[in-house]
């Protein structure tokens, strides 16, 4: 059987295998790098997702807390406004009750004073001679014994001493009364000085400055003179300043206009007018007639002038 010997050159295959090995190593390095990048990307993605979830949860909780704060704040503001309105209404009720109390008190005081005067007059008229004897003769004699210094009826050696002691005691009594009045006057003067010192401002004015002064402007229509009549009232200040204010106001009357406000002050004006009528010394018939005439008048609207 014949034998054949062939010589095969394996160097190209070896070179090819070497090239394949380098490429496999590059592929392995690329796979490792890709795996590392994937792991890093997954970690960064997970971290970003966690941070976004935390931020969203924090924003949600914060928005809910902000909504609750706004709700409770609006509720508290509404309660505060309601309490302020109730305070104003209670203050108005208190002032009206005080005025009603003072009005009722003045009525009853005047009623009882009238009853006392009428009873005193009737009692005096019961026995006029006895009353005249008491007030015209007995009381002056008693006052004379109390006020004048008496002279004791003693022996001649004791007249001077006794009269001097009585005179000295009377002088001491009057001196004590005068000293008490002087001490009261001095105390009142010191209190007045302290009061004036607390009111006055202890400051130096180097240059002119503006001050607000309240002024009342009243418009009326007379029965004899046709057309409006003006009355300007301001506090008691310097005559020159008061004259300047009145002159300025009279010159500005044409540019001013009335602004009607709410009619809440109509009841207050009515109460003040009725109080003045009831406190006046007029007969009851005239007071009653004034009440009836006032009720027939149209209701008064409260108005105010523009600021100047």
Structure report:
- With 308 residues, this protein is mostly helical.
- It has a domain at 216-305.
- 72% of the residues lie in helices and 6% in strands.
- The chain contains 6 helices and 4 strands, in the order αααββαβααβ.
- It has helices at 11-126, 128-147, 156-199, 239-252, 265-279, 284-296; strands spanning 216-221, 228-233, 258-260, 303-305.
- It has a two-stranded antiparallel sheet with strand order 1-2. A two-stranded antiparallel sheet has the order 3-4.
- A hairpin with a 6-residue loop joins strand 1 (216-221) and strand 2 (228-233).
- Helix 1 runs parallel beside helix 5 (265-279).
- The longest helix is centred in the N-terminal third of the chain and has 116 residues, at 11-126.
Layout of SSEs?
Blueprint: H1 11-126, H2 128-147, H3 156-199, E1 216-221, E2 228-233, H4 239-252, E3 258-260, H5 265-279, H6 284-296, E4 303-305
Antiparallel strand pairs: 1-2, 3-4
User: Strand-and-helix sequence, N→C?
Assistant: HHHEEHEHHE
Number of H/I helices: 6
Low-confidence stretches: 300-308
Secondary structural class: mainly alpha
Order of strands across the widest beta sheet?
Answer: 1-2
- Gap between N and C termini, in Å? 144 Å
Major pleated sheet: 2 strands, antiparallel
Roughly how many Å is the radius of gyration? 53 Å
Question: How many DSSP-defined strands?
Answer: 4
**Which of globular, elongated, flat, extended, rod-shaped describes the shape?**
elongated
The portion of residues assigned to helices is over 70%
Q: β content, as a range?
A: 5-15%
Q: Average pLDDT, to the nearest integer?
A: 77
